[in-house]
Inverse folding.
């Protein structure tokens, strides 16, 4: 496929179908920008109305083109697009960009028209970008196949950032903003309605493109999430960070997105979980996208999370220190060596430390900064150098910028600088933007970008170090098959637990009894106290039905409880099939957690973990990952919930067996992975986790099979 | 005091003490900027070295000045400052700005020198700004008494924003940024070390200044918090919003702030609570400060929280809708009337609604925007008009800006616009910056600013509507006096509860017994079941001591428990004075909450509310206000905790008696307010809240008196 994509993204010859000599129309603008930026291949305008446009020979139809060109840029009214694509196919043209609007984004009829395009593309074995897109710009080779307003700029800044956008208008805006800051691109790709090629296809291309080192994406929804996961994994392997702005994070935003793109919108929380799982950096805000990509584009990855702050303003140091703390980064002490060296430089007016505040003294001794930053940035305790600069205007600003840039050349660490002042420092901004130092106007975004770099660096390290995890032990799949084939759509608790047990998941000792006498025999074997629970696929709310009796401490209590329980259930659900009563051990106390598997419409099976009670029900404090997970994923799932302290032994309680939870998560992931197609929902609720070293046990389980 | 402050902030005559003919030195720059911006009063340089500077006669000392000038700008080495201030005092000069560094910010010796200044100022009955400050600029009268780099700009943009900053460097930077955006100031005041005049003094001045409508402040710490609360209240009364960037929000940031300013740093959470209580808008980020002040400066307050989004980009609509949802603002449907009118304008290509997305069609019909925005912004359902614009360059950008500006003139609502593109749209940015429309480059900041405006508008509405709350009923202060005078430093539970009861706070029925027999008599009166609790000022951890027995259901159980409990306590704390045993009713079940009063080093008595258990202990989910509170404060305290749902009846439980909690909070506030000087800590923990209508009851209470 990459050869075809190459023809699309770096064509040697281009037809502009619907070319116009009116440069305010799309067909005119495409020509104008191709010429403006000096496209070096062959251009064939196609329009029966003209002999030539601006001296370039014009062809009456695609069929009449003198050669089999690489790609066709189609800027026709929607109703003319299908025939035009058919002609391309007949002429052996394999790729096209369709700019025309009036397809799926307009709803009903448009959706039908887009289906027609898709069919033509499929039959012609073509690869097409669009429709309803703003096109593609290849910055490395100056090929502007777009009519985005950012092409009004004088030049294209080429560089190592590849950008795929599901919005043409915002995409163009982002490029404009980035180019203002001298951030260079390899490609800008606006995917439009994604009738054929989608976001992930283009990301896959960029990941293997030698000119692209960072992938930036504006995302409204991902169509093929398995493909996405694969691409993200490959990017992590190659060390090419993917920075994503995913919109539609709230229900309100999702509704707007749904009417806008007509795309399926999966749960945003699942998107976040998936991004985390595959090392994709999700940024919070519009401007973070550009500035995070800038940092990745300019700097090597930080070796750790320790930031050194150098400043001439105490206020600047406080703000950066606040943001560092909030983002969980480190503000280490300087090494003895650096402290001694710095003390000699700064005399009495400043205290040597981190933050290193050179105070208003910089005002009368601006050149002092030069020596200090050289020393400071070499400190072995510092992984990232952050410089805060405030109201320094004109020449002094330029000098300050040069000091920073020079220091950044001497050490192999990311340099970021937050400049608090405005346009009076502008000449310095330009110098920094042309250098390896990442300039930020906002202290919050500065430190957020550093945090992203640290997060990515850790994700990549984990990926490279990851142990070959042993394959899960084989299970008795005949037994599992039997459970699936003999159970009803909702399995009974006991069936669900037998299934769990096949995967080595610890469950309560229990057996089903069909009489009070048998129940007593089982209880004898298990040992009192026991619980009785109605065993019926139709009664899922057992407590509500009066179908549970806990803590029965003697045979007599059990014999008395048994018929009462049955009577309750028969009254509650007269038609329910009652398959006896489950006699179950009463597990000792511990921390209650919940492990669940559910099916996201977008991503498929999602594994969920949370603490019981209010943590899940009121605080929605859960962590999620796609099935299957790795051990590291399981560890992170446990650690990232807000109530994690409960597990480590808050409020005078002992530490819970966290290792047992991790083990359980992995086993549930194995189960879900094996039986994914047959399961719609699996809930282990509650799972009681005992003191460290004493394991965990599933007290109740619900498994709903998928209806076919 | 305002007359003196007027002499400082709008002086008719100025002495520059330490004036220099070297315009790169502070004493030179002060002269340079006074002249540059055309100071219309009299300038007297003071320096024995010169006859004149730039043709202005120079005086050898303050004593030799020909008149009693309004204010002295002192730019001398630190060691010369005390004498200089003494001379001012002798000459009857009442105000001064001290720029010199080398005082409290350098620690030990500097702190002593600053104390010396303070004493001179006090004796001279002067009002002084600084030391270690960057000065004051009066924009309305073009008086630049500062050497901040922002004065390198060609002009001072005057306007209605008064700005007080506890950082000179960041303060100047912020002014530079704001002036780039055409945001006009009345005053910029850098407070420096605040040896005399502090942040709050200047805020008080600005609030009564007719040229100032919005107060903006950069805050590291507030020295006199009672004064601040008073000033904030007055600002709310006059409808002048205070927008604050308070730094040192984390422990890390606070540590840096402490070394930087040497100032007391109270709990940041208390700062937030106080700001909320007095209608002060606290912004999250550096750039929010300017942009929030801009919105207040340009627009009337919104009448409600309903935002209408008008856009040409679907992506822009999604992002704004996301932020609106996240900030709890409304995205209402358009009125029938507007919908009908708009339908006629936009034909089939766009769906009429909110967000109103005019799609790529704007590309070929840009003038359509004009009519649509006129109609859209008049919709009665919309309180704030938000426009998103993306990659629109050059002339088209200017036209778009004009359409928005024209529409904003016809309706009395705040207009905000988020412009996604970069410098190619720059000419439009200038137009918007000069208009009443607030321009944002970041969608997040745009909606955050709208949220701040809505929050302020609500706070002010509440303030204006606030009922004259009835004065708290008189209490028997003799009885309270007796409790305070007879109790030890830590009151017994029973003493604390008797105190609560004096304020009408419902406590458990209980009495102290000194023998098992007496205990049984009391229990008979109260009714079984009862609890026994050791009554000793020395045993505050009663459970740990084995000093509590709950749920005693009979006389025999009580008679048995009594001596056991005493034995436990004697073993646990052999020296403790045991004043009998408290016999207490067992209250029925409910939701457990905690109400506490503690003493913040900065703000004094703080009232705290939270849910019991993990909510306070693990999640730190508490709300706070300064004592005394209003009924509205109490309502907000209950509503703003994250676990509020627990009270309204989550998880199948009935709604709790929220009115009873509000009543309790008010009564505890009254108690704390009456006995504030005598109390160091008061904890009602737990308070059990019954079903709606059934009240609440304090189960246990701890009161620690203040040591003198």
């Amino acid at each position: 496929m990459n050869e075809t994509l190459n023809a699309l993204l770096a064509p040697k010859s281009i037809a502009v179908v619907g070319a116009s000599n009116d440069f305010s129309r799309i067909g005119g603008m495409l020509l104008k920008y191709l010429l403006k930026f000096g496209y070096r291949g062959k251009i064939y305008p196609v329009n029966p109305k003209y002999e030539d446009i601006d001296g370039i020979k014009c062809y009456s139809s695609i069929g009449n083109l003198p050669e089999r060109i690489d790609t066709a840029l189609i800027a026709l009214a929607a109703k003319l697009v299908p025939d035009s694509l058919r002609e391309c196919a007949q002429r052996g043209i394999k790729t096209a960009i369709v700019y025309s609007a009036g397809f799926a984004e307009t709803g009903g009829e448009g959706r039908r028209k887009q289906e027609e395009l898709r069919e033509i593309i499929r039959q012609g074995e073509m690869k097409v970008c669009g429709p309803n897109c703003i096109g593609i710009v290849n910055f490395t080779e100056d090929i502007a196949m777009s009519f985005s307003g950012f092409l009004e700029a004088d030049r294209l800044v080429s560089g190592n950032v590849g950008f795929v956008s599901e919005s043409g208008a915002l995409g163009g805006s982002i490029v404009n903003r980035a180019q203002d800051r001298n951030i260079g691109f390899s490609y800008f790709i606006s995917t439009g309605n994604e009738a054929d090629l989608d976001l992930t296809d283009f990301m896959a291309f960029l990941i293997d493109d030698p000119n692209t080192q960072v992938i930036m994406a504006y995302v409204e929804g991902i169509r093929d999430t398995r493909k996405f996961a694969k691409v993200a994994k490959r990017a992590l392997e190659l060390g090419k960070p993917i920075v994503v702005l995913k919109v539609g994070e709230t229900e309100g935003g999702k509704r707007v997105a749904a009417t806008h793109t007509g795309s399926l919108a999966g749960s945003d929380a699942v998107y976040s979980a998936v991004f985390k799982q595959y090392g994709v950096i999700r940024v919070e805000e519009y401007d973070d996208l550009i500035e995070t990509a800038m940092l990745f584009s300019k700097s090597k990855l930080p070796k750790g999370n320790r930031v050194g702050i150098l400043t001439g303003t105490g206020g600047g140091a406080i703000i950066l220190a606040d943001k560092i703390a909030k983002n969980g980064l480190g503000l280490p002490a300087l090494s003895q060596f650096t402290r001694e060296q710095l003390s000699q430089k700064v005399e009495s007016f400043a205290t040597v430390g981190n933050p290193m505040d050179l105070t208003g003294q910089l005002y009368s001794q601006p050149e002092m900064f030069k020596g200090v930053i050289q020393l400071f940035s070499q400190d072995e305790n510092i992984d990232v150098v952050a410089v805060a600069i405030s109201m320094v205007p004109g020449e002094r600003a330029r000098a300050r910028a040069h000091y920073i840039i020079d220091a950044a050349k001497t050490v192999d660490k990311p340099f970021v600088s937050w400049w608090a002042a405005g346009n009076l420092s502008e000449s310095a901004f330009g110098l920094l933007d042309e250098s390896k130092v990442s300039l930020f106007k906002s202290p919050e975004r500065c430190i957020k970008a550093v945090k992203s770099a640290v997060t990515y660096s850790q994700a990549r390290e984990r990926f490279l170090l990851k142990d070959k995890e042993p394959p899960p032990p084989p299970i008795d799949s005949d037994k599992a098959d039997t459970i699936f084939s003999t159970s009803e759509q909702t399995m009974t608790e006991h069936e669900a637990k037998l299934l769990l047990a096949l995967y080595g998941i610890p469950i309560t000792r229990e057996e089903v009894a069909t009489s009070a006498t048998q129940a007593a025999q089982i209880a004898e074997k298990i040992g009192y106290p026991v619980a009785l629970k109605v065993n019926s696929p139709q009664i899922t709310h057992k407590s509500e039905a009066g179908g549970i009796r806990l803590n029965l401490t003697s045979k007599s209590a059990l014999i008395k409880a048994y018929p009462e329980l049955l009577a309750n259930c028969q009254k509650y659900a007269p038609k329910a099939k009652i398959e006896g009563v489950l006699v179950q051990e009463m597990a000792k106390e511990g921390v209650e957690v919940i492990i669940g598997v559910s099916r996201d419409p977008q991503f498929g099976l999602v594994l969920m973990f949370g603490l019981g009670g209010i943590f899940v029900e009121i605080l929605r404090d859960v962590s999620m990952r796609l099935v299957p997970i790795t051990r590291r994923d399981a560890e992170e799932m446990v650690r990232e919930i807000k109530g994690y302290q409960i597990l480590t032994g808050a409020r005078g309680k002992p530490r819970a067996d966290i290792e047992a939870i991790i083990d359980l998560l992995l086993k549930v992931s194995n189960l879900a992975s094996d039986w994914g197609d047959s399961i719609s929902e699996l809930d282990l609720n509650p799972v009681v986790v005992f003191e460290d070293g004493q394991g965990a046990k599933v007290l109740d389980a619900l498994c709903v099979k998928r209806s076919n």
Summary: The mean pLDDT of chain A is 93. Chain A touches chain B through 94 residues (CB under 8 Å).
